[in-house]
C-alpha cells in the first residue's frame, strides 16, 4: 500500500508546471465566448472568474502577500474584480507565469502552501469540465495530484481511508495521522478522478464507485 508521509518539496511545482503545459495551450485555442461559460463547481463564477482567481492566488504566493482575510470569498471576489478590465489573454498570461514561478517558492516554504497547488489543479479540472473537455480531473497531472492529496490528508489528520483505485496498481492510504487510531478505516473503490472529486467536493453524478465507512461530505478538504 502506498503511504505518503514524507513531504516532497518539489511536488507542488511539478504538479503546477505539468498542469500549465496541459491547460494553457487549451485555453489559448478557445474563443472568448467560452470564457463566459458557467462553472458548475463554483456557483456564480464563469471560466474567466475561476482563471482570474487562480492567477491571483498564485501571484500572492510568488509575492508573499497574505494580508488578513486572504483567500476568503470576499477577497477572492476583489481579486476577480481587479482583473475585470483585462483581456482573457492577459489573465491566461498571468496564470501561466504563476504556474511557472510559484513552485520554487512553495518548495522553499514549510509546506503550508503546498495544497494551494492541489487547489489550482482542481480548479483546472473545473474549467475543463465547463469547457466540455473529457477526463476533466485527470490527465498528466493526476499522479502528482494523488500523491499530494495523500500527503495533505495525512498532514491534516484527515479521516483514514484506503483507496483501491481501478487505474493505479497499489492501494493508496489517505489521512490517518493524528486521528483516533481506533476509528474504522474507510474504503473507496473506484477510479482516481472520482476520488479527487470526492476530496474536492465536486459532483460525482454518474460515476461508478463504492465508499464505505465515511460520508462523501466528510472527505471534502476544501469545504
Automatic annotation (TrEMBL):
**Keywords from the UniProt entry:** Isomerase
List residues of the Mycothiol-dependent maleylpyruvate isomerase metal-binding domain: 17-101
List the residue ranges forming a coiled coil, or say none: none
The keyword Plastid belongs to this UniProt entry's keyword annotation: no
Question: Where exactly are the transmembrane stretches of this chain?
Answer: none
Which Pfam families does this one have?
Answer: MDMPI_N
GO terms, molecular function: isomerase activity
Q: Which domain of life is it from?
A: Bacteria
* Full protein name: Maleylpyruvate isomerase family mycothiol-dependent enzyme
Amino acid at each position: 500500500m502506498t503511504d505518503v508521509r514524507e513531504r516532497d518539496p518539489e511536488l507542488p511545482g511539478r504538479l503546477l508546471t505539468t498542469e500549465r503545459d496541459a491547460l494553457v495551450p487549451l485555453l489559448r485555442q478557445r474563443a472568448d465566448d467560452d470564457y463566459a461559460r458557467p462553472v458548475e463547481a463554483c456557483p456564480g463564477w464563469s471560466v474567466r472568474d475561476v482563471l482570474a482567481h487562480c492567477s491571483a492566488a498564485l501571484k500572492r504566493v510568488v509575492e508573499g502577500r497574505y494580508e488578513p482575510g486572504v483567500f476568503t470569498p470576499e477577497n477572492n471576489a476583489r481579486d476577480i474584480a481587479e482583473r475585470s478590465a483585462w483581456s482573457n489573454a492577459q489573465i491566461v498570461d498571468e496564470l501561466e507565469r504563476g504556474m511557472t514561478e510559484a513552485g520554487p517558492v512553495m518548495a522553499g516554504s514549510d509546506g503550508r502552501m503546498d495544497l494551494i497547488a492541489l487547489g489550482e489543479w482542481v480548479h483546472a479540472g473545473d474549467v475543463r469540465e465547463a469547457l466540455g473537455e473529457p477526463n476533466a480531473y485527470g490527465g498528466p497531472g493526476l499522479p502528482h495530484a494523488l500523491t499530494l492529496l495523500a500527503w495533505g490528508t495525512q498532514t491534516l489528520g484527515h479521516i483514514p481511508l484506503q483507496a483501491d483505485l481501478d487505474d493505479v496498481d497499489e492501494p493508496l492510504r489517505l489521512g490517518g495521522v493524528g486521528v483516533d487510531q481506533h476509528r474504522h478505516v474507510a474504503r473507496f473503490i473506484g477510479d482516481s478522478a472520482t476520488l479527487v472529486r470526492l476530496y474536492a467536493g465536486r459532483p460525482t453524478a454518474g460515476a461508478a464507485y463504492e465508499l464505505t465507512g465515511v460520508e462523501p461530505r466528510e472527505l471534502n478538504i476544501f469545504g
